[in-house]
Structure formats: structure tokens, C-alpha cells
Design a protein that fits this description.
alpha/beta, Glutaredoxin, five-stranded mixed beta sheet
Length: 107
């Protein structure tokens, strides 16, 4: 189950985390974001113990979206100790997302 990240828990949840963090930047009005939600949640189970999955609402935390130059959503940003190591923009089915995440974090 993905964690919900806010500006208050950002440091602890993403920057200080030792595992890679796969972050879904999304908004409630975004239809592709709503399509991505069940895929993202399902993927989080596949990576249990290997990566943390987190969600950041661009509506509630525009400053975090701006910090990572999010210009299109859904945007999946993979981070290691707060630094971006990969990015996937737009919706894709689970097997495509899994392949792209594997390329970024390793199998």
C-alpha cells in the first residue's frame, strides 16, 4: 500500500529512506491519474521490501511538484535519498510500468 506524502513527512518518507522511493505525483481531477491508482497500488505489492511506493497530491502540495519540475501528470518519479534517478510520465499498463521501474531500480 503506497504511503501518502505531505510536506510535513516528505523528509522522513523520501529523503531519509534507504530504499528507492517510487513517487506518484497525481491530482484528483486527472483521469489518467485515476486509471494509474489501482496499477500503482498493485505494483507496490510486487516491490515490497525492495522499494517504497508513495503518492503526492499536486493539488495539496504544489510546492513539492514544483521542486521536482512536474509539468505533466501522472508522473512517476523514482528517488534515492531524495534525488531523482528516473521518471515515467503518463499512464501505462502494469506490465509496462513494471518493466520501466525494473530498468530504473534494478530487478
Amino acid at each position: 500500500m503506497p504511503i501518502i506524502v505531505t510536506k510535513e513527512n516528505f523528509e522522513k518518507s523520501i529523503v531519509k529512506e534507504k530504499l528507492p522511493v517510487v513517487v506518484d505525483f497525481w491530482a484528483s481531477w486527472c483521469a489518467p491519474c485515476r486509471m494509474m491508482a489501482p496499477v500503482f497500488e498493485d505494483l507496490s505489492k510486487d516491490y515490497e521490501g525492495r522499494a517504497i511506493f508513495a503518492k503526492i497530491s499536486t493539488e495539496d502540495h504544489p510546492e513539492l511538484a514544483q521542486k521536482y519540475s512536474i509539468t505533466g501528470i501522472p508522473a512517476i518519479v523514482v528517488m534515492k535519498q531524495g534525488k531523482e534517478i528516473g521518471r515515467i510520465v503518463g499512464f501505462a499498463p502494469k506490465h509496462v510500468m513494471k518493466g520501466k521501474i525494473d530498468e530504473i531500480v534494478g530487478k
